[in-house]
């Protein structure tokens, strides 16, 4: 039993577990979409991309844990926090201040350059103001919380592992 406890303290194992959580969250979002009928708004899709980016970095951290994994995870995490914060802000607007609904993300990607699509999505639209809840909490609030927890754990694991290894 002590061997298992020691092994799960290794940054590579923690990175693997956190990567699995990131990918599981994206899978849950897909289930909510396909089975639960919750159509994602463009900001939701971008938040999924942030989780995927975090997961990919954390997978790489299974091979080479350390400061770079912590930094890259935090960058993806901060992007996700910004997206979730913007999403929550749109959801908090009074009905008369909600922006008009825009075209879907598929249409935008087919018509506009990627940089303009990003600008349009970040400006928000009416469908992003709709509030879908899981266990009584809005989905962007859950993602905001989750970005913070995963990012914090990734930083702690990868920087602690670095100090434990003698500062390599």
UniProtKB/TrEMBL annotation:
GO terms for molecular function: electron transfer activity; protein-disulfide reductase activity. Disulfide bonds join 41-44. Residues 32-49 are periplasmic. Keywords: Cell inner membrane, Cell membrane, Chaperone, Disulfide bond, Electron transport, Membrane, Oxidoreductase, Redox-active center, Transmembrane, Transmembrane helix, Transport. The keyword Disulfide bond applies. It holds the Pfam family DsbB. HAMAP family: DsbB (MF_00286). Belongs to the DsbB family. Required for disulfide bond formation in some periplasmic proteins. Acts by oxidizing the DsbA protein. This is Disulfide bond formation protein B. It comes from Spiribacter aquaticus.
